[in-house]
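In response to reviewer comment 3 from the previous cycle, which asked for concrete evidence that the modeling workflow produces usable outputs, we include below a single protein chain processed end to end. The sequence was submitted unchanged, and the resulting structure tokens are shown without manual editing.
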Amino acid sequence: MIQLHGLRQHFDGFRKGFQRCLLALAVLVAPAVQAHPHSFADMKTFIQGKNDEITGFRMEWTFDAMTSAYMLDGEDTSPENLQQTFRKMAASMLENIQGDQYFTHFYDGDQPLQFKPAHGGQLTRDRAKLVLSFVLPLSHPKPLTQETLRLFVFEPSFYLGMTWDAAEDVVLSDELARDCRVALIEPDPTPEQVSYAMSLPADANPDNTLGKLFTQTVQIHCEPTTDEK
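The workflow returned the following structure tokens.
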């Protein structure tokens, strides 16, 4: 039986902070399947770079239809104001996740690489699903080396499950593709961790350790070439 109690209260939180809005969908399903995550985003990531350097990423996150519907609840979606509403929502979403590094973590070995503020944020609609896209530049371009680079994208509390469906959803720029390849590694949580995630009710306090446990890993392997003089 669908339970609607508290739904509007949870999604009003979206206007104040992106993460908390994702609690809402947990009350839409029967208790037997009230497990994290409660909302979902399919990702495409475009790795940008040239001249043997990675310069940043372009992200496309497609939210599930039900999450999308409640993100739009109370917004002005009239034809004459829809684009303005989308611009406002995109700016708000990026502002709200900036403190979490836009849910993006990029490592050279154990060294995290830093980002500049995201730009080019756009919210569009693909039938019933909302799509957030933006560019996330590195603070400093990362020269290609033979060391494996690692990319993680996850919402810390795992209320939002963020996944690449296949390695092909991580796309190298044409120049980077000459020297690099990507591999997509699935997470491997323990049975105890899975059981814990599945046991959390909708109104539980966020556990910001969960997202990392259940995230995929993108490995970037490069063999940069040097021009013979």
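The radius of gyration is 19 Å. We consider this sufficient to address the reviewer's concern, and the full set will be provided in the supplementary archive.
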